[in-house]
């Protein structure tokens, strides 16, 4: 099965879950092998943690030097534009 990308403006509306999983795993691996973050925060709330800078911040703080407890909150919009708030702990 070949998945064709569906992109509207800057938003990708289709993606392969294994590809997303691999991308996040690669970012975590990079952070774990990078220079350690010293004197970082211990507990962090990240708003907009589903992608971009929010996800990157959560990965750096949760898997980098300080190994902070993080809560990521993101608004997920469905096909019809109705958003639902989701949160998760690392």
List the helices and strands and how they pair.
Elements lengths: L6 E2 L2 E2 L4 H17 L9 E5 L4 H12 L5 E9 L5 E7 L1
Model description:
- The protein is α+β, with helices and mostly antiparallel strands.
- The protein is built from 2 helices and 5 strands; from the N terminus they run ββαβαββ.
- A 3-stranded mixed β-sheet has the order 3-4-5, with helices on one face. Strands 1-2 form a two-stranded antiparallel ribbon.
- Strand 1 and strand 2 form a beta hairpin.
- Helix 1 (17-33) packs across helix 2 (52-63).
- It starts with 6 loop residues before the first strand and ends with a strand.
The total domain count is 1
Kindly state the mean pLDDT as a whole number? Answer: 80
Fraction of residues in H or I helices: 25-40%
Estimate what percentage of residues fall within beta strands.
Answer: 25-35%
| Biggest sheet overview | 3 strands, mixed
The outline comes out as globular
Number of strands: 5
Gyration radius, rounded: 15 Å
User: Within the largest sheet, what's the order of strands?
Assistant: 3-4-5
Derived from helix and strand composition plus strand pairing, the structural class reads alpha+beta
Number of DSSP helical runs: 2
Contiguous low-pLDDT stretches (5 residues minimum) are: none
Q: What series of H and E elements makes up the topology?
A: EEHEHEE
Terminal CA distance: 33 Å
């Amino acid at each position: 099965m070949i998945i064709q990308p569906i992109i509207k403006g800057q938003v990708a509306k289709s993606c392969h879950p294994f590809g997303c999983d691999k991308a996040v795993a690669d970012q975590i691996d990079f952070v774990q092998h990078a220079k350690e973050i010293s004197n970082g925060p211990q507990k962090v709330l990240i708003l907009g943690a589903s992608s971009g800078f929010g996800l990157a911040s959560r990965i750096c703080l949760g898997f980098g030097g300080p190994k902070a407890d993080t809560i990521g909150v993101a608004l997920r919009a469905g096909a019809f534009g109705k958003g639902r708030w989701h949160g998760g702990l690392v």
